[in-house]
Amino acid sequence: MGSSAEYVFVGCYTGDKGGEGDGITLLRRDPATGDLTRLGLAARTPSPSFLAQHPTLPVLYAVNELHEGTITAFAVAPDCSLIPLTTQKTGGADPCHLAVTADGRHLVAANYGGGSVAVFPLDADGVPGRRSDLVQLQGSGPNTERQESPHAHQVLPDPNGADVLISDLGSDRVWRSRLDPNSGRLGPVGVAVEAKPGTGPRHMARGPRGTLLLAGELTGDVTWYHPTGGPALTPAGAAESSGLPGPVYPSEIAIRTDGRFVYVANRGPDTVSAFSWDGETAELIAEVPTGGVWPRHMILLGDHLYVANQRSHNVTVFRIDPDTGIPGPQGDPTGEPSPTCLLRWNPPVIRP
């Protein structure tokens, strides 16, 4: 494949979760125009609803969001074909997120249904071994239908250390733990964020100077918190994730690299909200239709925003004005069955 092109892997729901996908698919991205071309199925695997890659090795990881959850690792060939390496049990139900620690030695996965976090050691080739830890979260919230028990939704390893943040939709908390790089075990779990009751913390994003932004799936808002030097973060502000009436379920947050603009995907109104951002306050400057239904995930690549619309089976492209930060639709949607995650493939730099 040509070096001028870039590639995006797409995770999805398959029939076992009511989806129409077959596994992980591959898109080619033109970095000059931002346009996408669908190349087809890269690997068959059940409900790979979230994807991640190793920081230094050509290995891709997927959760398999099943009642008896698993993670699957794939070697990525130079042509972006996927070669299965191993599948390991997560020890919980419906894993929905995973991430690799900054040192590349461990994979961490969030079991949504089980309300637990699994850890897997990675060998020198990036292949996961059997689980080295499984930590059960505790707690519940006032929404009896959605918060009857803990629901781990995202794991966010520290890019410069051993801490791991865990958003828990069920308990209205973001937990913090420290991963021992030698034993592969998580230390005591403490509270990093105590969200207001009924928030339903879903996904997090790191902003400038250690600020943490948090999407509240059940309250339809975005809140942000500043570091204090200790384990807990201090509430610093909040904004409604959509200016439109009706139920809103924000799914994903993306921050432009210069930190000036924040984007939130809103299920319900099926929009992306754009906020101007200075680290302290957020001002809604635009809210645009996604061109699809139920925006599950999105990624920012340069001046383009890509949105995976789960229920309309497409991926839409927006060009972001570099000065105003406002996204505008570009081209036609790319058909993609039940997309739930987009992952830009960054080929590792192999040094002699």
Description:
With 352 residues, the protein is mainly beta. It has one domain (6-345): YVTN repeat-like/Quinoprotein amine dehydrogenase (Methylamine Dehydrogenase, Chain H), CATH 2.130.10.10. 0% of the residues lie in helices and 52% in strands. The strands form seven sheets. Strands 3-2-1-28 form a four-stranded antiparallel sheet, with no helix packed on it. The protein is globular and about 45 Å long. The protein starts with 5 loop residues before the first strand and ends in a 7-residue tail after the last strand.
Low-confidence stretches: none
pLDDT averaged over residues: 96
How many strand elements? 28
DSSP strand content = over 45%
> Pairing-aware structural class of the strands and helices?
mainly beta
By CATH, the architecture is named 7 Propeller
Number of helices: 0
- In which range does the helix fraction lie? under 10%
| Sheet having the most strands | 4 strands, antiparallel
Largest beta sheet: strand ordering = 3-2-1-28
Q: What is the CATH topology descriptor?
A: Methylamine Dehydrogenase, Chain H
CATH hierarchy class name: Mainly Beta
Shape: globular
Secondary-structure element series: EEEEEEEEEEEEEEEEEEEEEEEEEEEE
- What's the domain count? 1
Straight-line distance between termini = 22 Å
- Rounded to the nearest angstrom, the radius of gyration is 19 Å
Relevant CATH superfamily: YVTN repeat-like/Quinoprotein amine dehydrogenase
